[in-house]
């Protein structure tokens, strides 16, 4: 168990898929453990509100899965924030640009039924979990897409490639959040499982905080937990 700062002195950043909930075949087939909503509410209270959900998912999507959570949700890898029940974009995404990106991705996904297109307010994801041998095709397509649709860049995720607006990242979002009350002056702790969480965990460590990697795989995080259950245990017993 990593040595944690007291929750009254920590700014707690939690990734969602693969960290709070187990991965599932599709984004819509995840299971929210019965105890998770109360766990988050309890810790958020004990931490004086300094608990942030920070996800690649759209903020509204995450709110749909965790309707009891009233704290800050950073969605789309930082491209939008949900506060007080309202989602606000944090970057300008030109509607025409996004529409063209969606059209191209939709045409590509239409050629291969096992590729799943997930559309978000600020980007999209092409999932190949149903047929992992499509990885090269999806990587090549999204690399080309980022050359032709230059407002967006491709980021590998778990069995998926994300197209997100340029200049967006969980690390950048964390820096913005940490300038605000009640997070300012606290020790940032970032818990995540994916390559898209690595810059955020590195940023937390650079500020004197903690990066905690969930699961196997290379990481720059100095701490590791084996799975989502271990994360839940850590949250429950956070001093
Ligand atoms: O930043 P996160 O909260 O970890 O979100 C990252 C992406 O998670 C979702 O995709 C991943 O989880 C799916 C459900 O388990 C899984 O089917 C998929 O293969 C994973 O890549 C979500 O769909 C994306 O929008 C998030 O960006």
Automatic annotation (TrEMBL):
Its cofactor is Mg(2+). Pfam families: Trehalose_PPase (PF02358). GO terms for biological process: trehalose biosynthetic process. It comes from the Bacteria. Pathway: Glycan biosynthesis; trehalose biosynthesis. One of its GO terms (molecular function) is trehalose-phosphatase activity. Keywords: Hydrolase, Magnesium, Metal-binding. Its EC number is 3.1.3.12. It catalyses: alpha,alpha-trehalose 6-phosphate + H2O = alpha,alpha-trehalose + phosphate. InterPro entries: HAD-like_sf, HAD-SF_hydro_IIB, HAD_sf, OTSB-like, Trehalose_PPase. Removes the phosphate from trehalose 6-phosphate to produce free trehalose. Belongs to the trehalose phosphatase family. This is Trehalose 6-phosphate phosphatase. It comes from Tateyamaria omphalii.
């Amino acid at each position: 168990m990593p040595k944690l700062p007291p929750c009254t002195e920590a700014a707690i950043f939690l990734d969602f898929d693969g960290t709070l909930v187990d991965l599932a075949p599709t984004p819509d087939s995840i299971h929210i453990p019965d105890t998770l909503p109360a766990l988050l509410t309890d810790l958020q209270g004990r931490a004086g509100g300094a608990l942030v959900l920070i996800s690649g998912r759209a903020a509204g999507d995450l709110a749909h899965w965790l309707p009891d959570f009233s704290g800050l949700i950073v969605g789309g890898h930082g491209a939008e924030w949900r506060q007080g029940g309202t989602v606000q974009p944090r970057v300008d995404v030109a509607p025409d640009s996004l529409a063209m990106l969606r059209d191209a991705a939709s045409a590509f996904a239409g050629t291969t039924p096992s590729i799943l297109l997930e559309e978000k307010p600020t980007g999209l994801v092409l999932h190949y979990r149903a047929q992992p041998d499509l990885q090269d095709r999806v990587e090549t397509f999204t690399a080309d897409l980022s050359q032709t649709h230059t407002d967006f860049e491709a980021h590998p995720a778990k069995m998926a490639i994300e197209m997100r607006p340029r200049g967006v990242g969980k690390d950048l979002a964390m820096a913005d959040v940490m300038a605000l009350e009640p997070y300012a002056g606290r020790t940032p702790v970032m818990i995540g499982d994916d390559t898209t969480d690595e810059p955020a965990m590195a940023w937390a460590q650079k500020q004197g905080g903690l990066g905690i990697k969930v699961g196997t795989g290379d990481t720059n995080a100095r701490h590791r937990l084996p799975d989502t259950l271990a994360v839940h245990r850590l949250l429950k017993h956070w001093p």
